[in-house]
Amino acid sequence: MAKLRYFDASNSLNARNATPAASHSEFLRTGKITRTRAHWLAEERRYLTHDEVAERTGRTLENAGEKTHQNINGFHRSIQFPKMLFHRTLRDSPHLGYCHVTASRTKFARYEEVSWAFYIANFYADIGDNDNFFDKIDVKYSRMYFAVAIKPGEHTPEKMTIDRSVRGNGILFRTDDPQVAIKNVLLLGARNEQLREIIRQL
User: Fold this and answer.
1) Distance in angstroms (rounded) separating the CA atoms of residues 108 and 182
2) What InterPro entries does the record tag this protein with (predicted)?
3) What element of type H or E holds 116?
């Protein structure tokens, strides 16, 4: 697959907005010859490095993670999650990435105690195995919210890996709807059934 190239669209957009539609009409109107570079040179594209794209993607993801964390912790004082923001971008597609928002432990269905992590991605995908975390990436959706059961990594460079003994694949939920995601995170964080019932009725 060809390596993706990225260019800074904001510069060309600003140049276009700042220049008149036609230089000859400007001369007829004012009698002055415009000597700005934009009139005399073809529009130049400034290509971005993959590191620059990854940095921009990371900022966007962490801003989304920050807002989501505030929304979750703003629901009820008895349900508070630690802010644990960090992001990763995909190696050959740095415009795509995901952000870790928070992590916690909870009693979940028949499982006594499950450690889990909650993420936001700027695409939709299936959760794959550890060698290929995402499968079938679909960029038609601008966001994916998901939580996975986690455990300390064994024989892997990662500190934590997906605990696939929970539900057979380790996925607690996956959605493109932010309201559904927040509701699911709150259910995972609720300490008693009474609070869970209130959340379910939202």
Assistant:
1) 17
2) DUF6656
3) strand 111-121
* In the chain, alpha helices (H): 9-18, 23-30, 37-40, 50-73, 178-189, 193-200
**65 in the same domain as 15:** no
92/26 same-domain check? no
67 half-sphere exposure, CB direction, 13 A CA radius: 8
Per-residue pLDDT of the chain (202 residues; tens, 9 = 90+): 457 777 777 655 454 555 445 555 565 666 666 556 555 454 566 788 889 999 999 999 999 999 999 999 998 888 899 999 999 999 888 999 999 999 999 887 677 789 999 999 999 998 877 566 788 888 777 799 999 999 887 766 667 888 888 888 889 999 999 999 999 999 988 877 888 888 888 7
Does 26 share its domain with 93? no
| Same domain as 101, residue 19 | no
Task: Provide the residue type at 189 as one letter.
Answer: G
What domain range includes position 41?
Answer: 6-48
Both ends of the chain: CA-CA distance in Å? 45
Number of structural domains (the chain) is 2
CB atoms closer than 10 angstroms to residue 183? 18
Q: What is the pTM of this model?
A: 0.77
Between 178-189 and 50-73, two packed helices, what is the crossing angle to 10 degrees?
60
Structure token pair of residue 111: 């499982």
